[in-house]
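User: quick one - fold this with zinc ion bound?
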Amino acid sequence: MAGRTIVVDPGHNGVWTTALNRQVPAGNGRTKPCNSSGTAAGRYAEHAFNWDLASVLVTQLRDLGAKVVLTRSNDHGSGPCVNIRAQITNDAKPDALVSLHADGNLAKGARGYHFIISSTMVGGSAVERQSRALATQLRNALDDGTDLPRSTYIGGGTGIHARTDIAGLNLIRVPGVMLEVGNMRNAADLALQRSPAFRKAVATSIAKGLVRWLD
Ligand code: ZN
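Assistant: Sure. Structure tokens for the protein plus zinc ion:
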């Protein structure tokens, strides 16, 4: 991946305060809060999982020769708003953005991962198509490389779901995806999320998918 730049966005912040409720532009004519607190389960907060996973992914991508830009530099503070994360992404002029999250769905039996893509990107339809192709490559790599199934509750079994309300995707001019790495409210998914070996396997899968997509 020499010569390539990837922006890695560990979703949410180490510390959430009510100040993060202020509305910011979200693209597609919408506004939304600067940032949300994210989910949590069993005293494992989503922001911490996102950070733990991002740390492994950053190491792997740098080992492959990529330049990596993070949207927040630690898991202690109240990092940037979602619109500023998009600006960080655009300013880095990367090949792609990968935003890392975990879901918090309370439906019985809801588990598995899914990719979110935007169908209303400021980058336009070409960037939307590239983002869908990236999501497809990353999904195939996750299917091969981890024990986490595709989402049972969103995406109709494809593991990919298009939305219009995600600021960090709407506002970027480069290909990007958001990955919900399982459902923290599901015990089986949470057990995987807590596992360093699982997080490493997810990072390896993302790196492989990126390499294939860039080829
Ligand atoms: Zn999240």
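One thing worth noting: The chain has a mean pLDDT of 97.
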